[in-house]
Structures are given as C-alpha cells and as structure tokens.
Amino acid sequence: MGKGLTEFEQLSSIEKGVFVVENHLSSGMMDIEDIKRLIPCFIHLNNVETLALEYIDPDVSEFFRITEEKVQRDGMAALQEVCHPGDLEKNTAAIHSFFSTAGASSTMSFFERLRTRKRNKNEFNLHFSVTKLFNERQCIVLTFPVHDVHNITGKISSILDEHAFLKKNFERFASLTKQEKKVLKLLAMGYNNPKISEELFISRRTVENHRKRINKKLETKNLASLIEFARAFNLYTS
C-alpha cells in the first residue's frame, strides 16, 4: 500500500498514525508494547525543556549505542551519543519553537541522522521522527529508519482505516490555531460565548470571530459536528 503513495503522503500518513497511537497510549487504551506490535518503530520520551532522554524502549538499546542506565544517569549525554551534532542542534531549536506555541494535539516531524551499533563513530543512518506532547514535562517520539518507511506506511494506513473520521479530517483540524482549539474544546464542553470569553480572557467579539473561523476551517455547521471533532482529536484531555 505504501509504495503507491508519494513520499509526502507516506510521511503525512505516519504523522497521523502517531497522533492516533499516542492518544490511545495517554488514555490507557494501549501501552508501549501494544504500539510496537502495530508499528515497527523506536519509542522514547524526552524532557520537553531540555530534550534529554528520559525513557527508551528496549529495542533502542539493541539498535543504538545507548542503554537505559546511560539514559537514567545522563539523558542529554545519551542523546548526544547517537545524534549527529548538526542535526541535534538544528532539531532542538525547531522542537523548542514548536512546543512553545503548539497545543497538546499537535504533531511535529523531522529528519535526523543517528549512529547505530553497526556504524563507526562518524557514520550515521537517516531516520524520520515524529513527536507530540505526552504530558506537561515530556514529549513522546516515534523514530523510523527512512529505508523502512514504505513498510511502515502500510501498517499505519491499516490503523487509520479504523479511524476514518480522523484520517479524513486531520488536515482540517491541523489548520486550527492553538487558541481556536481551546475555543473548540470549550464549545464541545457546553460553554457559551460569554463563558468562553471569561475562561480565555478574551472579548465576546473575539470569541465570535474564532467560532466563524473554526466553522470555516472544519466545514462544520452545528454543535454536534464540533463535538465530533473534539472527541476524535482528544481535546477533552488537552
């Protein structure tokens, strides 16, 4: 299935899949082993502020030159051990910028060169990673070898087929700003314009403008449709 897609479509599919599985993980519907059975990937948790590693799944230490002991002792040193220094500096700046404005439901993807156990000190393999906020102090990252993207896309497409609404509307939802997502969440929770105005410390006119933009971007015409978006994209826990 993956081979019929363009490279952009493949990578976009992976981002959507990561959104789904992370929601299941944070809600308790899945654990990390469940995710790895569905999608062949490396999973790790990083500190949002420093990006230091705080958790790695067992496969990470088998494939890369780091161990759980190294991560617990010095998560930043462990990260520096496997990442190309230029990529680490560039991606760290981009991720910090992203999380400073992104909502809990947003995902970010990036490429990085990583040193595996089979490589010498100055040799790296290209990987594709997707990250999303996991909790207040950590982000979850799923990492894939670029050469295996075709196979991974097929598996993720199967997951997305079970979440047809999300697959169809992912780009629409992603077009909402952080503030618009907050308004959408409150609307779905039953707040009216005056209450939203008080909750977010914005004027009623601003609330009305947000609602108009939300309906335009999502192509919705009633509250039931907005609630469906909020539920599908897990805004109730954001």
What features would you describe in this structure?
- The protein is of the alpha+beta class and 238 residues long.
- It has two domains: 2-162, 2-Layer Sandwich (Beta-Lactamase), CATH 3.30.450; 171-237, Arc Repressor Mutant, subunit A.
- It is 56% helix and 15% strand.
- The protein has helices at residues 7-27, 32-38, 58-63, 68-73, 75-82, 85-101, 149-161, 164-174, 178-188, 193-200, 204-218, 223-232; strands at residues 42-47, 53-56, 107-114, 125-133, 138-145.
- Strands 2-1-5-4-3 form a five-stranded antiparallel β-sheet, sandwiched between helices.
- A hairpin with a 5-residue loop joins strand 1 and strand 2.
- Helix 10 crosses helix 11 (204-218).
- The mean pLDDT is 87.
Question: What is the element layout, followed by pairings?
Answer:
Elements (H helix, E strand, L loop, with lengths): L6 H21 L4 H7 L3 E6 L5 E4 L1 H6 L4 H6 L1 H8 L2 H17 L5 E8 L10 E9 L4 E8 L3 H13 L2 H11 L3 H11 L4 H8 L3 H15 L4 H10 L6
Antiparallel strand pairs: 1-2, 1-5, 3-4, 4-5
Helix pairs in contact: 1-7, 9-11, 9-12, 10-11
Secondary structure category: alpha+beta
Under CATH, the topology of the largest domain can be stated as Beta-Lactamase
Q: Work out the radius of gyration.
A: 19 Å
Most strands sheet = 5 strands, antiparallel
Number of helical segments with 4 or more residues: 12
Number of strands: 5
Number of domains as seen in the coordinates:
2
Q: Label the overall shape.
A: elongated
The ordered H/E elements are HHEEHHHHEEEHHHHHH
Overall mean pLDDT stands at 87
Cα separation of the termini: 33 Å
CATH class of the largest domain: Alpha Beta
Helix fraction?
A: 55-70%
Strand order of the largest sheet: 2-1-5-4-3
Low-pLDDT residue intervals, each spanning 5 or more residues: none
What is the correct CATH architecture of the largest domain? 2-Layer Sandwich
